[in-house]
């Protein structure tokens, strides 16, 4: 297997890790207005992800750095063409992260309400725009090759807001919301757990319908794709896992529901990667001008060096993250939340 393909897979795995892990973070943030009826409720919700949310976001940083090093043309073209959506994502992530740390720094309901709003919108906007971006990658964007090498995006922000990509954005947002609600049910007890399960049941039904529509649309749009069999297989596994997760949640088996949602997100992204490969960006102007994995890759020596670094560092990252989740595996209760409003909300 060529190193260009290997690094396409590695970047894909890192993005899957990001959406699986930060996905439930986003879902917990989205749940604040629905499950956080009191300040203590909201503090319980934030504490479910308090020890891990920043660690989860590092997967995006690592994925972005790997993309920059392995496929600099992809990085440059996508970040110039999708500049405004990616900037909005960055601002949303900053406001969300700051809010986790600052909401408990002063007394007063108005102070915490402001930061709770930042957490909510900072959890809704990124998955919505990420879904729009990834849907556009396989749907095709106005892309041209330029003299001297490279590619140029010739569209606008409005070009990205087409029906297919908007549906993709909504589906990714709902997947994250459902994933987060199941995580809340997995990490809490009593009324909080019951309410999270009930909301996950209702949101999950809508997610199943819209996700099925998106996957079918994707298959139909790529009916002539040489990877069609792989696309259908990944889409089918994603659909079955989502249905299985919903059934497990209804039965009160949050652990299996969480696993099912994890498989769903992973294979939904694999469906997109299968529809994309061997391209990185598909041109809607002329398919011959699409950006390919080989054409956008770094030099062979760069890829070889990066491969050795990945071989030694990725296992360490996985071991550390696994240890972190093991340490903070216990369920949370209201009794664990300090009475003092100034208490560390993300301790």
How does this model look, in words?
With about 350 residues, the protein is mostly helical. The chain has one domain (about 5-300, about 325-330): Formate dehydrogenase/DMSO reductase fold. Helices cover about 75% and strands about 5% of the residues. The chain contains 14 helices and 4 strands. The chain has helices spanning about 5-30, 30-35, 40-50, 55-70, 70-80, 85-100, 110-140, 155-160, 165-185, 190-220, 230-250, 255-275, 295, 300-325; strands spanning about 145, 150-155, 280, 290. The strands form 2 sheets. The protein has a two-stranded antiparallel ribbon with strand order 1-2. The protein has a two-stranded antiparallel ribbon with strand order 3-4. Strand 1 (about 145) and strand 2 (about 150-155) form a beta hairpin. Helix 1 (about 5-30) runs antiparallel to helix 7 (about 110-140), helix 1 packs across helix 9 and helix 1 (about 5-30) crosses helix 12 (about 255-275). The longest helix is centred in the middle third of the chain and has 32 residues, at about 190-220. The radius of gyration is 21 Å and the shape is globular. The model is unreliable at about 340-345 (pLDDT under 50). Belongs to the cytochrome ubiquinol oxidase subunit 2 family. This is Cytochrome C oxidase assembly protein. InterPro entries: Cyt-d_oxidase_su2. Its main location: membrane. It is found in: Cell membrane.
């Amino acid at each position: 297997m060529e190193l260009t393909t290997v690094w396409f897979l590695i970047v894909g795995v890192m993005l899957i890790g990001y959406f699986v892990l930060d996905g439930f973070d986003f879902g917990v943030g989205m749940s604040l207005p629905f499950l956080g009826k009191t300040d203590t409720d909201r503090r319980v919700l934030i504490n479910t992800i308090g020890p891990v949310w920043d660690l989860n976001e590092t997967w995006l940083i690592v994925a972005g750095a790997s993309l920059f090093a392995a496929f600099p043309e992809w990085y440059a073209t996508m970040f110039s063409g999708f500049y405004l959506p990616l900037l909005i994502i960055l601002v949303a992530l900053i406001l969300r992260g700051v809010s986790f740390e600052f909401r408990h720094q002063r007394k007063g309901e108005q102070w915490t309400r402001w930061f709770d709003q930042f957490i909510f919108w900072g959890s809704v906007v990124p998955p919505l725009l990420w879904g729009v971006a990834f849907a556009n990658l396989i749907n095709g964007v106005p892309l041209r090759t330029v003299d001297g090498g490279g590619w140029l995006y010739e569209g606008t922000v409005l070009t990205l807001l087409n029906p297919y990509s908007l549906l993709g954005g909504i589906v990714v947002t709902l997947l994250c919301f459902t994933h987060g609600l199941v995580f809340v049910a997995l990490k809490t007890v009593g009324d909080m757990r019951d309410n999270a399960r009930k909301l996950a049941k209702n949101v999950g039904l809508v997610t199943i319908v819209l996700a099925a529509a998106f996957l079918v649309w994707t298959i139909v749009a790529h009916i002539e794709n040489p990877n069609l069999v792989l696309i259908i297989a990944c889409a089918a596994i994603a659909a079955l896992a989502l249905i299985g997760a919903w059934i497990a949640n209804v039965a009160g088996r949050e652990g299996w529901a969480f696993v099912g949602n994890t498989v769903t997100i992973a294979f939904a992204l694999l469906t997109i990667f299968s529809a994309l490969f061997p391209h990185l960006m598909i041109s809607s102007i002329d398919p011959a001008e699409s950006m390919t994995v080989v054409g956008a890759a770094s030099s062979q020596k760069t890829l070889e060096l990066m491969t050795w670094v990945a071989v030694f560092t990725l296992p360490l990252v996985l071991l550390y993250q696994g240890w972190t989740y093991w340490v903070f595996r216990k369920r949370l209760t209201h009794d664990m939340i300090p009475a003092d409003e100034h208490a560390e909300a993300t301790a």
